[in-house]
Amino acid sequence: MELDHASIGRIRRANLIRVALNDLKRDAQTAACEAGVSAVAVGELLDPSRDVSQRDLLDLALALSHRYPLSLRDLIPIEDDAPTGVRTMTQRESTLSTRRFSRCGIEYYEYLDTAMTRAAMFRPELLRMLVNVNDNSADNPAVSWNNGHFLFQLTYFIGDVNYYHEFNGKRYCFEMNDGDAAIGMPYCRHSFTSRRTDGENAILALTFGGRLPGDPQQELSLLGPELAGRFVLDGSTPDASIASKIDFYRNRLSLTIEELAGRLNMTITELTSSLTDAATLSDCQLKHIADVLHVTPTALQPSPDVRGQIGVYIARQRDSPVWNFPGDAKPIYRVRELCGTKAVHGAVGLEMTLLDAPANTDTDRKDYLEHGLHQYGYVVGADQMDLEWIHEGVSRRQRLNHGDSFYCKPFVKHRFVAPDNSRSGDRRVVLLRIPGKLGPDQLDEATTLGADAIQRLISDTTQWYSA
Ligand SMILES: [Fe+2]
Questions:
Q1: Which of 167, 230, 301, 351 is deepest in the core (most CB within 10 A)?
Q2: What's the CA-to-centroid distance between 187 and ligand 1, angstroms?
Q3: pLDDT digits 0-9 by tens, 260-277
Q4: What's the CA-to-centroid distance between 370 and ligand 1, angstroms?
Q5: Taking a C-beta distance cutoff of 8 angstroms, is the pair 205, 127 a contact?
Q6: For residue range 35-86, what is the model confidence (pLDDT) as tens digits?
Q7: How far is the CA of 312 from the centre of ligand 1 (A)?
Q8: 10 Å Cβ neighbour count for 359?
Q9: Phi, psi (5° rounding) for residue 230?
Q10: For the structural domain made of 5-77, what CATH number should be given?
Q11: Among 200, 161, 197, 209, which residue's Cα sits nearest to residue 181?
Q12: Are 76 and 58 a contacting pair, CB within 8 Å?
C-alpha cells in the first residue's frame, strides 16, 4: 500500500527518535524519566500513527539533546519539499523573489531565486548584470569584486558577459558568450559585468555544496580551528598526497613505520624512501599498504587538484563535448557537457536539447533519464516543454516554460516531452547534478549493508528488543 506524504513524515519523525534512543539503549519510559519529560509525550512521538505538533517535537528534541549526546539535527527530520519526486519553480515565482543590491552606491546585480530543495545543497540563482563595460580589463574600476564564497559555482552564461576571477592575488577577465560555462572554486573572489546594453545579459549562478557543508561542517566547527585544520593533508604534489594519506591511516592504527615495513617485506629505509617519492611505489605495493591499513586502494590515491592552475575551469561552448542520447541511430536528446567536473566531487553540468518527441506513452521508451544524483534544471530554450516523471508508481507531467526551473530527486525516472509532439523549436535545459552527501563512501556502505538494512535504517520505529 502506498503511503501518503503525512504518513511518511510521521514514520520519519518516529524513526529518528527511536533510532537515537535505541543507540543509547533507552526505552521510552527511561528516556522520559531521565530527560524530565512526559512519558506519554515520548510515546506519542515514537508512535508513527500519531500526529504531533512541531512545538511538541521541538520541546522533546531540546530535552533529549540536553540530556544525551544528541544534536537537534539528529532528532528533527528535514521536511521533504519534493514528495512527488520533483519540485518546480515558475519564472513568475522567480520574478517575485527579485532583489537588487548596490555595491559602492551603484546597483550591481539583480538576483532571482530559482528552484531549490532541502534535500540537496543547491543555491541556484539567475543574476542579471546591471553594470556595463566596454573592455576586458580585470582592473576596470567599474568592476566590484565580492569576497568569494564557500560553495562551488557552475556558471552558465546568457548573452555577452565578462567573468572576473581572482586566484593567488592575480586577477583574470574572461569574455564569455552565450552557452559558455565555468566552474569556480570556493572562496575565489569574482564578479560579472555585461558587455552589451541590449538583450538578456545574465548568468545562471548555480552554487552548490560538496560534502563538507552540513554535518561535516558542524563536526569541523565543533573540533575547532586547530584540530579541524589537521584534516587538511599535504596535497602539494601527488607523491606528497599519497604519503600523507598513508601516514594518516597508519596513525589511525598506531602502526609504526617499522611494523608497516615489516608487513610489506621492506626495510625501514626502503619504506621511508618510497614514501618521500611515492611514484616509486608499485600498484601492487600500494594495494598491499591499503590492505594493511584496512582501507581501499582508492583511499590512498592522490587528492584531486580541484583548484587547477588558476582556480577556475572554463568551458567554451565550441569546445564542449557533445553526444546524442540514447544513441546516434535515433537521437532524442543532444547532450553537451558544460564543464569537466570530475574534480568537483561527482558534480555534473549538462545542457540538454530535446530533439525529438515520440508521440507514444510507452514507459519503455528510451528517452527516460535515470541517475543517482540530485538534479537541478533551468529552461534556457525559448519553447515550452513538459517534464514527465514517474515516482512511486505514479506518473506526473508538468509544463515548463522559458525561465522555469525544477529539482528532481535521485533515481526518479523522467523525460522531457514537446507538448505538441513537434520536432522543431528550441527546447533546452541546463542541468546540474550533484551527489549531495551520498558520495562514494556512502555508496560503498549502502551496497555492503544491502537494501533491507537501508530500508530498516530509514523506516524502523521499533525498540531494539521486544519486551
Ligand atoms: Fe558567486
A1: 351
A2: 9
A3: 999 989 899 988 888 887
A4: 29
A5: yes
A6: 999 999 999 999 999 999 999 999 999 999 999 999 998 999 999 999 999 9
A7: 12
A8: 8
A9: -70, -15
A10: 1.10.260
A11: 161
A12: yes
- Fold equal for 86-208 and 312-434: yes
Q: Where do the structural domains in the chain lie, given as residue ranges?
A: 5-77, 86-208, 234-300, 312-434
**How far is 218 from 216, CA to CA, in rounded Å?**
5
Domain 86-208 annotated CATH 2.60.120.10: yes
Rounded to whole angstroms, the Cα distance separating 430 from 280 reads: 44
Question: Residue 29 has which C-alpha cell?
Answer: 519510559
Q: How confident is the model at residue 103 (pLDDT cuts 50, 70, 90)?
A: confident
Cα 57 from Cα 55, distance rounded (Å): 5
Centre of ligand 1 to C-alpha 144, Å, is 12
Ligand 1 centre to CA of 126 (Å) is 11
Q: What would the pLDDT profile of 36-45 be if each residue is shown by its tens digit?
A: 999 999 999 9
More confident position, 424 or 194? 194
CA 75 – ligand 1 centroid, Å = 33
CA of 167 from ligand 1 middle (Å) equals 14
The CATH code of the domain at 312-434 is: 2.60.120.10
Kindly report the length of the chain: 467
Spatial separation of the C-alpha atoms in residues 450 and 431, rounded to whole Å: 30
C-alpha 219 to ligand 1 mean position (Å): 25
Confidence tier at 340 by pLDDT (50, 70, 90):
low
How far is ligand 1, taken at its centre, from the CA of residue 12, in Å?
35
- pLDDT at residue 55, rounded to an integer: 94
Q: What is the pTM of this model?
A: 0.92
CA 313 / ligand 1 centre spacing (Å): 14
Cα–Cα nearest to 8, from 55, 16, 372:
16
What architecture does CATH give domain 234-300?
Orthogonal Bundle (1.10)
- Per-residue pLDDT, 153: 93
* Model pLDDT for residues 399-441, shown as the tens digit of each residue: 999 999 999 999 999 999 998 766 678 999 999 999 988 988 8
pLDDT reported for residue 221: 96
Residue 174: pLDDT above 60? yes
Nearest in space to 413 (alpha carbons), one of 375, 376, 370:
370
With CA atoms as reference, report the closest residue to 406 among 426, 428, 387, 427: 387
| Cα dihedral value 135, 141, 144, 149, nearest 10 | 80
Query: Contacts by 323-326 with C-beta closer than 8 Å and gap 24+?
Result: 324/355, 325/352, 325/367, 325/369, 326/366, 326/367
The alpha carbon of 380 and the centre of ligand 1 are apart by a number of angstroms equal to 20
